[in-house]
Amino acid sequence: MFLTDYHVHCDYSADSTTPLRPQLEAARAAGVVQLCFTDHVDFDDSGLPPADLAARDAAIEALRADFPDIAIRRGAEISLKNEAVAAATLAYCKGRDLDFVIASLHIVDGVDAYYPEFFEGRTQAENYARYLDFAAKVLPTNPIFSVLGHYDFCAKFAPYAERSVRYAHAADAFDSLFRYLVQAGKGLEINTSAWWDGPAWGLDVLRRYRELGGEFITTGSDAHQSDRVGKRLGEALELARAAGIPYVATFERMEPTFHKL
Ligand SMILES: [Zn+2]
Ligand SMILES: [Zn+2]
Which position among 21, 70, 181, 202 has the lowest Cβ density within 10 Å, counted as fewest Cβ atoms? Predict the structure, then answer.
């Protein structure tokens, strides 16, 4: 199987302490043939400083020769909020010659869906819907990205026994996200990190993405630690295939290459 991990963090992200090398060694052990480091560039009031991309990219170049079996790409995960945040992000990344950019939503109404308080005072359906509604609203504020990251981030740290995000939780928001992605030539990420060790979800969501013209996905573990690099990427590809999505994409200098699923 052609395994590509296009969402990996390292210690250039403020929330990871794992150096580049062990992430790459873990990728090799997991059979990953392409890996993109997507360190955080947050101007959304997360309180975390943005990754020093220049230093990280120099460190990547110094390691490349030790990993001839892995195509290593230089990416970023940028946080969505509004036009001002998009402009600051763009200015920060200017001249960095990135291969790939994930646009992600983490904070809604000033609260990160990482924290328990995000979920207080509302039902599961209300919480998932407001996350996706806000994602649909703010995605168009950022013109420079390759894929929408983890549409199900609202489930990752959710306090529910059954955490899966379903298309029916936010049908209108999903439709407007997918219509935007398709007309803009952008893709959707299948992020395996919210599944933890439970069953995979997303087939209904991916089917709708396909119905609305979605042609490609990327797959990412969102690993901040080595034990999660490459995790469940095969299942992500199976889901995409089952949904009828034709391609998994890889990127170089923001240009996609499409690989038949
Ligand atoms: Zn994220
Ligand atoms: Zn991430």
Answer: 21
The domains located in the chain, with CATH, are: 3-260 (3.20.20.140)
Among the listed residues 246, 161, 171, the one whose alpha carbon sits nearest the alpha carbon of residue 204: 171
Ligand nearest to the CA of 79: 1
Cα–ligand 1 centroid distance for 191 (angstroms): 9
For residue range 56-70, list pLDDT tens digits in order.
999 999 999 999 999
State the ligand closest to the CA atom of 9.
2
Distance from the alpha carbon of residue 109 to the mean position of ligand 1, in angstroms: 17
The predicted structure's pLDDT at residue 191: 98
